[in-house]
Amino acid sequence: MKQDTQSMTNDEPDDGVLLPIGEVSLLTGVNAVTLRAWQRRFGLVIPARTPKGHRLYTSENIQEIHEINAWLAKGVAISKVKPLLMSTAKLSSEMIESQVVDLWDEQITALNTAVFDFNQHKLQQILDDAFGLYPFQLVKEKLLQPWLNQLDDLVDERLDAELIVAWLKSELLSRVGGRYVFGGQAIAARMAVVQLSRGAATPPNSARTKSLFSLLLSLELASLRVSVIDLGEQAIGSLPLLQGRLNVDALLLMPDPNHSGSEQAEMLTVLAQMSFPCRFVGPFAPTLTSLSAFWAPSMTDLIGQMPSRAVGKTNRSHKGKGKSEQGKSGENNDIS
Asked: What angle do CA 115, 210, 275 make, to 5 degrees?
């Protein structure tokens, strides 16, 4: 997300500059809910407070968050991080290994059981814990992607495969529509998503693979405060009809596997007509070898290339203890 000069940049804050929780979240990739949970439950990343109770974070807090993220990426559970941060001795590989747990494998197994049993409470409980305690990108890499890939394989020969995917889709989309509402925050971007249709030429099972990916994409875009318009399945030739009628920052296209050379040539002709960026996403995007220039980067990078939609963004003008009505950015009901 492009920021103005008074807002947050990708650089670390200067010494003495205090940042509100919303800016810290954008800087570190750890959302405000997770930062609060780390503080309350594990005594991690203790910020300063304004007279009205809003959190303000120092450069040392930011460094601590980066160190926590590094331990989490190695497989250390958040509950085991604090002693590692406090240790001044060089840790041996054996000591580090003792802190690493099979957290994600256990969660994947539990998620599969919840889905096969249509256990709504268990499914949402596991996701609540993961999203509440870990940065979304880590949850995506360690939990969501491996889980959905495994689930795609597990249901392949089941008679209830489509029922399972339909139920899961309902549960995850209700989560996107409920838990991840933006709570009055300005959206980062507005995007439309299209699943490119090939009719009878669509390979068996690719629709399910695309559907599971679309669920992951929906969760990620919601975590990034992206407003999404789902246009369902459409033929590539219908996309020019959106010109002048659709107000979006980007159009995300999910192709089928193995589009022919003539189909890719048609896609290139259509994309050249579009007035907004179009990017291919999904498991089959890399098969479009002649359209590699249109493959999407990470969603975070894609949003970073767009002009910000945010209105009334906070200024980084907190020098010392006192001032921060701006601390409300990115955090509703901040006093906790």
From this structure: 135
Per-residue pLDDT tens digits for 213-248: 999 999 999 888 898 999 988 988 899 999 889 989
- pTM for this prediction: 0.78
Encoded tokens for 180? 């991840």
The C-alpha atoms of residue 80 and residue 64 are separated, in whole angstroms, by 15
289: which DSSP letter? G
Domain ranges of the chain: 19-100+313-328, 189-309
* Rg, the chain, Cα only: 22
CATH for the stretch 19-100+313-328: 1.10.1660.10
By three-state DSSP, how is residue 14 classified? Answer: coil
Kindly give the pairing relationship between strand 55-57 and strand 48-49. antiparallel
DSSP for 290-334 reads: GGGGGB---HHHHHHTSPP--SSPPP---BSSS--GGGGTT-SS-
* CATH number, domain 189-309, options 3.40.390, 3.30.70, 1.10.3720, 3.40.50: 3.40.50
